[in-house]
Specification:
Layout (H helix, E strand, L loop, with lengths): L1 E6 L3 H16 L3 E2 L8 E6 L4 H19 L5 E6 H13 L5 E4 L6 H7 L23 E5 L1 E2 L10 H5 L3 E2 L2 H13 L4 E5 L16 H11 L4 E4 L9 H9 L3 E6 L7 H7 L5 H14 L4 E8 L6 H14 L3 E6 L17 H24 L5 E10 L2 E6 L10 E4 L9 E10 L3 E11 L24
Parallel strand pairs: 1-2, 1-3, 3-4, 4-5, 6-9, 9-10, 10-11, 11-12, 12-13, 16-18
Antiparallel strand pairs: 7-8, 14-15, 14-17, 15-16, 17-18
């Protein structure tokens, strides 16, 4: 069976897709990135905001059209959007053969097996994942599932359930498998990394996980994404400051800076606590880059609230900010609020915020000009080496163009002197020295390794 797999939404969905792709390949499926060749197409959907839902629906419709044209035998839609809207989707999209929500994903293989599309003898470790992108040295490691936060705007707990941490030995084993597959940078992801281990009560929290990853793997770069400021502790800062392989980078979602709006959002932080955490972080971890996220146009957001948000961004000077306009999600507390901010005002506020942050990012980056920056080479494009500094996460924080590194393979780590900032988001630099040259990591083979283990199914 030739299999097409479309993954939408967050990095946590990427991890899920890679895991199922490996298990499907182990049972006889052959992955193809050309959907016109696929006999079965699986769409891993996102249901976080309206734009993500539309993208998911468009992908399902595209797959349905290929089925009607006769090139595809079956279309399967899975994941978060299906979890929330399964009955409506089944009624509206009869061309889809199977809908499985996030809580039903363990039925994917048995359902395809029952249709005679895959074999029924699994042989690989459940942590093995099939990578299909163009940068196999950059991988994501999900350490928990679900969320216990009660944010008024967010449907993630409704789609993914309560927070469940994966056992530390399971996470370490999966990291070791990623390293064996050529991973040079591993990004830790969860709905809130700071909650790791709280539910297990086995003495292992995020600091212990980080120390174990440093001790039990040789992965050069470990990056933390999605960590609430309320979970930042002196112990965590101690580990970050003492372990050079843990990058000086945090993705710390803030969502707003008006205490009134934060309260309506049911967020755990307030402006003063966010300020205190940022000051503490920057005092302990030199040259730390902090990325945050903001929502504009939340119900009840006044011009004064928005001005407070803008003033706070100017004061704190985050390195990067991602932002989006509010849209109501069924089943959330905010969906029952009057959405009293016109769409035109939301868009105008978003544009103002993004323009302000573009200027802030450019100014923050200028302080690195003339200094060496630890950099990972990602690819060679038209003879030019492109990479990322320790302050740039993959896909969201821009790149650095490194002159003189054209002969190096993807995954190589170098020091590059920052020569300038381009378009306020990218760096331009010159190779200073090679720290750790890497042979270009091989693509995941179609013949996957057999790895026996008593470890369970990594939280599924």
């Amino acid at each position: 069976m030739k299999l097409g797999f479309i993954t939408l939404g967050c990095d946590k969905n990427t991890v899920d897709s890679e895991r199922y792709l490996a298990q499907l390949a182990d049972r006889g499926a052959e992955y193809t990135d050309d959907l016109a060749e696929a006999e079965v197409i699986v769409i891993n959907t996102c249901g976080f905001i309206d734009a993500a839902k539309k993208e998911s629906l468009d992908a399902i419709v595209q797959a349905g059209a290929l089925k009607e044209a006769g090139s595809c035998k079956a279309v399967v839609a899975v994941g978060c959007m299906v979890q929330r809207h399964k009955s409506e989707l089944e009624e509206a999209l009869p061309e889809v053969d199977l809908f499985l929500g996030s809580s039903e994903m363990d039925r994917l293989l048995p359902e395809l097996e029952a249709r005679g599309l895959i074999d029924d003898v699994p042989s690989i470790h459940p942590g093995v994942r099939l990578f299909t992108g163009d940068a196999p040295h950059i991988r994501y490691l999900k350490v928990s599932e679900g969320c216990d936060h009660g944010c008024a705007f967010c449907a993630i707990p409704l789609m993914r359930g309560k927070h469940r941490s994966f056992a530390l030995d399971e996470v370490i084993r999966e990291a070791q498998l990623l390293e064996a597959q050529g991973a040079r940078e591993v990004n830790l992801v969860a709905q809130d990394l700071a909650h790791y281990g709280r539910d297990r009560r086995d003495g292992f929290a995020l600091p212990e996980l980080l120390e174990a990853l440093v001790r039990e793997t040789g992965i050069p770069w470990l990056r933390m994404l999605y960590l609430y400021s309320s979970g930042i502790t002196p112990r965590l800062l101690e580990v970050m400051a003492s372990q050079p392989r843990i990058l000086p980078y945090l993705d710390m979602p803030m969502q707003h800076a008006s205490d009134t709006v934060l309260a309506r959002m049911r967020r755990p932080e307030r402006q003063h606590t966010i300020r205190e955490r940022v000051q503490m972080l920057r005092a302990v971890v030199p040259d730390l880059a902090i990325r945050t996220t903001c929502i504009v146009g939340f119900p009840g957001e006044t011009e004064r609230d928005f001005d407070q948000l803008m003033a706070f961004l100017e004061e704190i000077q985050f390195e990067r900010v991602g932002a989006f306009t509010y849209s109501a999600q069924d089943g959330t507390r905010a969906a029952d609020m009057v959405d009293d901010v016109p769409e035109s005002v939301k868009r105008q506020r978003l544009e103002r915020l993004l323009e302000l942050q573009r200027q802030i990012t450019g100014e923050r980056y200028e302080r690195f000009i003339g200094r060496p920056a630890r950099t990972m080479i990602d690819r060679i494009v038209e003879g030019e080496a492109q990479g990322r500094t320790v302050w740039q996460a993959d896909d969201v924080d821009g790149i650095i163009n490194v002159q003189g590194a054209e002969s190096l393979s993807a995954g190589s780590i170098v020091d590059a002197v920052i020569e300038g900032v381009e378009d306020d988001v990218d760096f331009r630099g010159t190779l200073l020295r090679v720290i750790d040259a890497s042979a270009s990591p091989p693509r995941q083979p179609r013949s996957l390794p057999v790895l026996s283990s008593s470890i369970g199914s990594f939280g599924r």
